[in-house]
Structure formats: C-alpha cells, structure tokens
Amino acid sequence: MKKNLLVLLFGVCLAGSVGPNTLAARPAWAQSSDGQPITITGEIWDATCGANGSHGKMMTKLNAKDVKDCTLKCSQNGDKFVLFDLQNRIPYQLDDQDKAKQYAGQKVKVTGKYDKATNILHVDLIDSQ
Asked: Taking the domain 27-128, which CATH number applies?
C-alpha cells in the first residue's frame, strides 16, 4: 500500500512539473535551435488567457462577448498578443504585435522563426484560417 502511494505521489509530482511553458512540453521543433522557418496553427490570444489556457475567467471579469472581444480588452489592459497552439495547449510570444492585433481571437497560421532561448516567435507571415 505504501509503495503504491509513493508511486502515485511521484507520478502526480512529475506530471505537475511539466506545464505548458516548460521546454519538455513543447514540440520537437521548438527544442531545436536551427533557426529554420516554421508554421504553427493556433489562435491569436492575449498572454493572460494563453497562460491560463482559457478565456473563461477573463471573459466573465471583463464582460467580454466573445474570444475576440476578450483578447482585445486584455490587450488594452497591457497584455501582449500570443499565438495559442490549440493542439498542444502552448502559448507562443509574438514579436510583431501590430500584425497579431488584426487577427485577435481568430484561427491563424503563423510562419516565422522560433527563438527557444527567448520563447519568441519572430513573425514573417500570419494567414487567417
């Protein structure tokens, strides 16, 4: 019984140590540093909701009517725009905030170079889905 409990606790601790912003949780291309252009599909969100993986709390707090409204209201409060990878549930910081703003709350494909040292995706192109 004690052994099973220790194994369970170890598993819970291990699972809790790998969050969405850890390198281990990122796809293989994000762990390399070859500087090759990549394309990621996701949605343009604000950093707060991206870190939470949801707009739920902020939509209620800001009385936002939809994801776009929430994203824009959070950005007006000082948040940066991020690309939220829906499949892997990972937010990526974007260097070009002006390009990102016009796609707030929308599904997009972002092409650029990912700098793993700074966790910044240097945007070359954003295409709506």
From this structure: 2.40.50
